[in-house]
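Researcher: Re-running this chain for the archive, since the previous output was lost when a drive failed. Same request as before.
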Amino acid sequence: MRPGKGMSRAAAGALVGGALLLPGGSRPSIAADASSPSGIVEAVAPFLGPPRSPDRRVIVVGWDGATYNMIDPMIEEGRLPHVRALIEEGVSLRLESTMIPISSAAWVSAVTGKGPGKTGVLGFFGQETNSYDLTLISSRDNRAAPIWRILNHLGRRTHIVGVPVTYPPEPIDGVMIAGMLSPRDAVYTHPPALADRLRRTGFVPALDVWRERDREPSPEILRTNHDLKTDLVCALVERSDWDLLMVVYKSLDVLSHRAYRGDLADAVAAHHELLDDALGRIRSAAGPDTDILLLSDHGFGVYYHKLSVNRCLAHLGLLSLRSGVTNRRVDMNRAFAEVRRDQRRDDLRHIDMRRTVAYCELAEGNFAGIRLNVVGREPEGIVAPAERDSVTRSVMGALAELRSRSDGKPVFTQVVATREIYPGPWVDTLPEILVRADRRLLCDAWLEDTFIRPLTRQLPEHRRMGVLIAAGPSIAHRETRAKASILDITPTLLHLYGLPALEQMDGDVLVDLFRQPAEVKTIDESSLDLAEPAAGAPRDPEQDAAIYERLRALGYLGGVDAGAGDDGPTEESPKPDPRRTPE
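Model: Regenerated structure tokens:
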């Protein structure tokens, strides 16, 4: 039973460090004497706790960078049988990423249901106070409560594996293994003792170059860690108590940055087959009573020309150069966080910030963020805070009017004020303007000596549109492929559990996903006291009782199920949504 159904959160929390018990019943399981050659199952075993059969179990599998441009033709060739089965049983949607489509912002928005104005995360770096220097972000920079914290506060147990921007890990009721941006030698797990046990198996928490000085991982390392992660996840699925299990495979994005060509015979296509096999193993381990969502944080594509956004700003008279700039070669054998920091410092030597109104802070794919040089926020700011909004509008107008010399078409097909699409308490820490360039142009935040230059070879980078595929006992079958926002993931998960979404969330419940949609209900976030993580330790019983009473009054926790509501779907007229823009 759950809290509110006769079981205290203290009792639920006691399961975290419990002894390992093997599951019974008909659910598939690893044999009691089985062990992986790597020892990964043995490493995680002491932290699993006894299994049980929750009211509803959901698995979220992330393929970082997956795109239908690769998935659809591979399904036609019969190479992704498990993805095909999900689509044939359930539904597939085009999933629009954040603007900018970068893993840090996108995954944080996916697990919180909130845009960057409420999470504070738009890229991998934050600008230091009263400085132009950059600092690599961590989980502490996410100011919004993620799905696992919300579910923990409501008595649900969660296992989280490999989700980007979860280092340092927070204490949760369950197991957390942090993902991208986790130092290999750090305590990147909860419980903390799990990190050393995983290290001894050769497991690497983050297959990226942000913190490490090593070269990018070899195909052998990618394959080894793929197998380790899948073995670990299957052990969590089969041998422990959980309500939500979420795992992100970052390996696809890492490989795609090096090798993506959209060619079904290349290494990226072959890696999709590994991921499909892992998907099949996870789904088999979970059994037929589990809902499963497969999603990506953004898509992938190739670009043939590079656009220097800072050169555009200089051309418009908004950025002042001190001297000539030459294209630079980057030493990628260093940690990329160091490279990006030093590149910013090098750019500043060429820019006269005392005469600069705006500069490009970050870029990904054909998107970029432009920051005003504001007095009091930037050390050499020239834009008065009182004039910030009017200057923003003027800069936006100039960018919208900029035309390519070759064909006369707009360089930027979309120019928006960040606060209009991502309002929130942290929006003032973000770049004031977000732009989308022509689909052929790869935006660059580095200062170069050319406006637009052709690339010597096609360069793989992010596209905004990712994938969302869902199937399971709660999920309807739909033939048409609609569009959703990555902000919709967490509200939809909460609704799937029969819980209210938070009123402060920017995303919507995807009611069309469900076989029998129930009425969408919401609750004010302040009612749940989500400021701090909810670990397995007991909390104030009176506080918990008040929370559950509020939820019960809304029709939750009293047997109401998201797939069996009496009210049916609500009929509302569609409203324009600035978050959903044409790809």
